[in-house]
Protein backbone atom coordinates (compact mmCIF):
# COMPACT_ATOMS: atom_id res chain seq x y z
CA UNK A 1 0.00 0.00 0.00
CA UNK A 2 1.32 3.42 -0.93
CA UNK A 3 2.01 5.55 2.13
CA UNK A 4 0.47 8.97 2.43
CA UNK A 5 2.32 12.26 2.30
CA UNK A 6 0.74 14.44 4.96
CA UNK A 7 0.24 18.19 4.94
CA UNK A 8 -1.51 20.33 7.56
CA UNK A 9 -3.73 23.39 7.41
CA UNK A 10 -4.35 25.54 10.49
CA UNK A 11 -7.29 27.72 9.57
CA UNK A 12 -10.91 28.67 10.13
CA UNK A 13 -13.96 26.62 9.21
CA UNK A 14 -16.14 28.00 6.43
CA UNK A 15 -19.50 26.16 6.28
CA UNK A 16 -19.76 26.80 2.54
CA UNK A 17 -16.53 24.89 1.90
CA UNK A 18 -15.24 27.64 -0.35
CA UNK A 19 -12.54 28.99 1.95
CA UNK A 20 -10.65 28.03 5.08
CA UNK A 21 -9.61 24.56 6.15
CA UNK A 22 -12.20 22.68 4.06
CA UNK A 23 -11.03 24.37 0.89
CA UNK A 24 -7.40 23.82 1.89
CA UNK A 25 -7.94 20.07 2.33
CA UNK A 26 -9.69 19.87 -1.06
CA UNK A 27 -6.67 21.57 -2.63
CA UNK A 28 -4.21 19.28 -0.86
CA UNK A 29 -6.00 16.16 -1.98
CA UNK A 30 -6.26 17.41 -5.57
CA UNK A 31 -2.45 17.41 -5.44
CA UNK A 32 -2.33 13.81 -4.23
CA UNK A 33 -1.58 14.70 -0.61
CA UNK A 34 -3.40 13.68 2.55
CA UNK A 35 -4.78 16.83 4.14
CA UNK A 36 -4.91 17.22 7.91
CA UNK A 37 -6.67 20.16 9.54
CA UNK A 38 -6.68 22.15 12.77
CA UNK A 39 -9.54 24.57 13.39
CA UNK A 40 -8.79 28.10 14.64
CA UNK A 41 -12.25 29.61 14.25
CA UNK A 42 -15.86 28.75 13.55
CA UNK A 43 -17.28 31.20 11.05
CA UNK A 44 -20.90 31.90 10.20
CA UNK A 45 -20.82 32.59 6.47
CA UNK A 46 -21.68 31.38 3.03
CA UNK A 47 -20.09 32.25 -0.30
CA UNK A 48 -21.59 35.77 -0.35
CA UNK A 49 -22.17 36.82 3.26
CA UNK A 50 -19.82 36.81 6.28
CA UNK A 51 -21.71 37.24 9.56
CA UNK A 52 -19.60 36.20 12.53
CA UNK A 53 -16.34 34.62 13.68
CA UNK A 54 -16.03 32.62 16.92
CA UNK A 55 -12.40 32.01 17.84
CA UNK A 56 -11.11 28.67 19.12
CA UNK A 57 -9.07 29.03 22.32
CA UNK A 58 -5.30 28.92 21.86
CA UNK A 59 -4.82 25.87 24.11
CA UNK A 60 -7.36 23.91 22.08
CA UNK A 61 -5.57 24.80 18.86
CA UNK A 62 -2.26 23.67 20.33
CA UNK A 63 -3.82 20.42 21.57
CA UNK A 64 -5.09 19.70 18.04
CA UNK A 65 -1.64 20.37 16.59
CA UNK A 66 0.23 18.21 19.08
CA UNK A 67 -2.16 15.30 18.66
CA UNK A 68 -1.58 15.28 14.90
CA UNK A 69 2.21 15.56 15.21
CA UNK A 70 2.16 12.64 17.68
CA UNK A 71 0.75 10.46 14.93
CA UNK A 72 1.87 11.86 11.56
CA UNK A 73 5.04 13.15 9.89
CA UNK A 74 4.23 16.72 8.87
CA UNK A 75 6.86 18.77 7.05
CA UNK A 76 4.69 21.51 5.54
CA UNK A 77 1.99 23.56 7.29
CA UNK A 78 -0.28 26.21 5.80
CA UNK A 79 -1.72 28.77 8.24
CA UNK A 80 -4.79 30.91 7.55
CA UNK A 81 -6.84 33.00 9.97
CA UNK A 82 -5.67 33.22 13.58
CA UNK A 83 -7.12 35.49 16.25
CA UNK A 84 -4.10 37.81 16.59
CA UNK A 85 -0.38 38.09 15.89
CA UNK A 86 0.55 37.03 19.43
CA UNK A 87 -1.38 33.78 19.12
CA UNK A 88 0.10 33.20 15.68
CA UNK A 89 3.63 33.62 17.05
CA UNK A 90 2.93 31.04 19.75
CA UNK A 91 1.56 28.54 17.22
CA UNK A 92 4.60 28.99 14.99
CA UNK A 93 6.90 28.30 17.94
CA UNK A 94 4.91 25.16 18.77
CA UNK A 95 5.27 23.93 15.19
CA UNK A 96 9.03 24.46 15.18
CA UNK A 97 9.34 22.70 18.53
CA UNK A 98 7.53 19.69 17.07
CA UNK A 99 9.51 19.72 13.81
CA UNK A 100 12.55 21.99 13.62
CA UNK A 101 12.57 21.75 9.81
CA UNK A 102 8.89 22.41 9.22
CA UNK A 103 8.08 24.78 6.34
CA UNK A 104 5.31 27.20 7.21
CA UNK A 105 3.30 28.89 4.47
CA UNK A 106 1.44 31.80 6.05
CA UNK A 107 -1.56 33.40 4.37
CA UNK A 108 -1.97 36.54 6.51
CA UNK A 109 -5.74 36.95 6.20
CA UNK A 110 -6.47 40.38 7.66
CA UNK A 111 -9.89 41.22 6.27
CA UNK A 112 -12.66 39.14 4.69
CA UNK A 113 -14.07 40.31 1.39
CA UNK A 114 -17.29 41.05 3.28
CA UNK A 115 -15.37 43.48 5.51
CA UNK A 116 -14.80 41.45 8.70
CA UNK A 117 -11.43 42.26 10.31
CA UNK A 118 -9.41 39.26 11.53
CA UNK A 119 -6.21 41.08 12.50
CA UNK A 120 -5.27 44.55 13.64
CA UNK A 121 -1.81 45.87 12.80
CA UNK A 122 -1.24 47.56 16.15
CA UNK A 123 1.44 45.17 17.42
CA UNK A 124 3.98 45.38 14.61
CA UNK A 125 7.00 44.52 16.77
CA UNK A 126 6.09 40.85 16.63
CA UNK A 127 5.80 40.74 12.84
CA UNK A 128 9.53 40.50 12.13
CA UNK A 129 9.81 37.42 14.33
CA UNK A 130 6.87 35.83 12.55
CA UNK A 131 8.30 36.45 9.07
CA UNK A 132 11.68 34.99 10.02
CA UNK A 133 10.09 31.71 11.16
CA UNK A 134 7.95 31.22 8.05
CA UNK A 135 9.15 29.77 4.76
CA UNK A 136 6.70 31.77 2.65
CA UNK A 137 3.97 34.36 3.17
CA UNK A 138 1.20 34.92 0.62
CA UNK A 139 -0.55 38.28 1.09
CA UNK A 140 -2.64 39.97 -1.56
CA UNK A 141 -2.15 43.63 -2.50
CA UNK A 142 -4.69 44.89 0.03
CA UNK A 143 -3.26 42.81 2.88
CA UNK A 144 0.38 43.70 2.38
CA UNK A 145 -0.46 47.40 2.48
CA UNK A 146 -2.27 46.90 5.82
CA UNK A 147 0.73 45.25 7.48
CA UNK A 148 2.83 48.42 7.70
CA UNK A 149 0.56 51.45 7.25
CA UNK A 150 3.50 53.82 7.66
CA UNK A 151 5.40 52.30 4.70
CA UNK A 152 4.63 52.35 0.99
CA UNK A 153 4.13 49.02 -0.74
CA UNK A 154 7.65 48.92 -2.23
CA UNK A 155 9.28 49.45 1.17
CA UNK A 156 6.97 46.92 2.79
CA UNK A 157 7.85 44.26 0.21
CA UNK A 158 11.57 44.96 0.57
CA UNK A 159 11.33 44.78 4.35
CA UNK A 160 9.45 41.47 4.47
CA UNK A 161 11.43 39.92 1.61
CA UNK A 162 14.65 40.54 3.55
CA UNK A 163 13.33 38.11 6.17
CA UNK A 164 11.36 35.47 4.24
CA UNK A 165 9.99 34.53 0.82
CA UNK A 166 6.94 36.46 -0.38
CA UNK A 167 4.33 35.45 -2.95
CA UNK A 168 2.31 38.60 -3.60
CA UNK A 169 -1.12 37.73 -5.02
CA UNK A 170 -2.19 40.15 -7.73
CA UNK A 171 -5.94 39.71 -7.86
CA UNK A 172 -6.56 42.99 -6.02
CA UNK A 173 -4.03 45.13 -7.85
CA UNK A 174 -5.24 47.91 -10.12
CA UNK A 175 -2.37 47.64 -12.62
CA UNK A 176 -1.61 44.31 -14.33
CA UNK A 177 -4.53 42.65 -12.57
CA UNK A 178 -3.89 38.98 -11.92
CA UNK A 179 -0.11 39.23 -12.22
CA UNK A 180 1.51 37.82 -9.09
CA UNK A 181 5.03 38.44 -7.86
CA UNK A 182 7.44 36.09 -6.09
CA UNK A 183 10.22 37.58 -3.98
CA UNK A 184 12.91 35.25 -2.73
CA UNK A 185 16.61 35.14 -1.91
CA UNK A 186 16.34 38.56 -0.34
CA UNK A 187 14.76 40.61 -3.10
CA UNK A 188 14.83 38.59 -6.34
CA UNK A 189 11.49 39.22 -8.04
CA UNK A 190 9.78 36.89 -10.51
CA UNK A 191 6.55 37.88 -12.27
CA UNK A 192 3.96 35.09 -12.31
CA UNK A 193 1.74 36.21 -15.18
CA UNK A 194 -1.73 34.85 -16.04
CA UNK A 195 -1.73 31.96 -18.52
CA UNK A 196 -5.41 32.10 -19.44
CA UNK A 197 -8.14 34.69 -19.29
CA UNK A 198 -9.88 34.39 -15.95
CA UNK A 199 -13.64 34.65 -16.37
CA UNK A 200 -15.23 33.84 -13.00
CA UNK A 201 -14.41 35.10 -9.51
CA UNK A 202 -14.38 32.57 -6.68
CA UNK A 203 -15.02 32.69 -2.95
CA UNK A 204 -11.85 31.57 -1.15
CA UNK A 205 -9.51 31.90 -4.12
CA UNK A 206 -6.77 33.35 -1.90
CA UNK A 207 -6.94 30.31 0.38
CA UNK A 208 -6.78 27.98 -2.60
CA UNK A 209 -3.72 29.64 -4.11
CA UNK A 210 -1.84 29.55 -0.80
CA UNK A 211 -2.78 25.91 -0.32
CA UNK A 212 -1.68 25.07 -3.84
CA UNK A 213 1.69 26.65 -3.09
CA UNK A 214 1.95 24.67 0.14
CA UNK A 215 1.08 21.50 -1.80
CA UNK A 216 3.70 22.07 -4.48
CA UNK A 217 6.33 22.80 -1.82
CA UNK A 218 5.32 19.62 0.01
CA UNK A 219 5.78 17.71 -3.26
CA UNK A 220 9.35 18.98 -3.41
CA UNK A 221 9.18 21.56 -6.17
CA UNK A 222 11.65 24.49 -6.04
CA UNK A 223 9.90 27.71 -5.10
CA UNK A 224 9.96 29.23 -8.60
CA UNK A 225 8.43 26.10 -10.12
CA UNK A 226 5.91 25.80 -7.29
CA UNK A 227 4.77 29.37 -7.97
CA UNK A 228 4.13 28.71 -11.67
CA UNK A 229 2.37 25.40 -11.02
CA UNK A 230 0.16 27.02 -8.38
CA UNK A 231 -0.77 29.84 -10.75
CA UNK A 232 -1.93 27.29 -13.31
CA UNK A 233 -3.93 25.46 -10.63
CA UNK A 234 -5.72 28.60 -9.39
CA UNK A 235 -6.61 29.66 -12.93
CA UNK A 236 -8.22 26.29 -13.58
CA UNK A 237 -10.05 26.58 -10.27
CA UNK A 238 -11.32 30.09 -11.07
CA UNK A 239 -12.70 28.90 -14.40
CA UNK A 240 -14.06 25.58 -13.11
CA UNK A 241 -17.65 26.85 -12.74
CA UNK A 242 -19.77 29.94 -13.23
CA UNK A 243 -20.69 30.17 -9.54
CA UNK A 244 -18.66 31.59 -6.64
CA UNK A 245 -17.83 28.04 -5.49
CA UNK A 246 -15.14 26.35 -7.53
CA UNK A 247 -14.31 22.73 -8.31
CA UNK A 248 -10.99 21.15 -7.32
CA UNK A 249 -9.79 18.90 -10.14
CA UNK A 250 -6.84 16.58 -9.61
CA UNK A 251 -3.60 17.72 -11.20
Chart the SSEs and their pairings.
Blueprint: E1 6-13, H1 20-30, E2 34-45, E3 50-55, H2 58-71, E4 74-79, H3 85-98, E5 103-106, H4 127-132, E6 136-137, H5 141-147, H6 153-161, E7 165-168, E8 180-184, E9 188-192, H7 205-218, H8 223-238
Parallel strand pairs: 1-2, 1-4, 4-5, 5-6, 6-7
Antiparallel strand pairs: 2-3, 7-8, 8-9
Account of the 3D structure:
- This protein has 251 residues and is of the alpha/beta class.
- It has a single domain (6-238), classed as Ribokinase (UDP-N-acetylmuramoyl-L-alanine:D-glutamate ligase, 3-Layer(aba) Sandwich), CATH 3.40.1190.20.
- Helices cover 36% and strands 21% of the residues.
- It is built from eight helices and nine strands.
- The chain has a nine-stranded mixed beta sheet with strand order 3-2-1-4-5-6-7-8-9, with helices on both faces.
- A hairpin with a 4-residue loop joins strand 2 and strand 3.
- Helix 1 (20-30) packs across helix 7 and helix 7 runs antiparallel to helix 8 (223-238).
- The radius of gyration is 17 Å and the shape is globular.
- Its EC number is 2.7.1.49.
- This is hydroxymethylpyrimidine kinase.
- Pathway: Cofactor biosynthesis; thiamine diphosphate biosynthesis.
Amino acid sequence: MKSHTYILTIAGHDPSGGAGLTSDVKTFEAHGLYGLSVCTAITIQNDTNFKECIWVEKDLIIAQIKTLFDRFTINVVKIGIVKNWKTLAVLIDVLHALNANVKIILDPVIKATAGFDFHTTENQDILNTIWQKCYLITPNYDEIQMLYPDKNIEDTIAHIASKTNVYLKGGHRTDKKGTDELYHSGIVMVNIVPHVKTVYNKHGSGCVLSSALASQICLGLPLDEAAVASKIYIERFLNSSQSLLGVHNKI
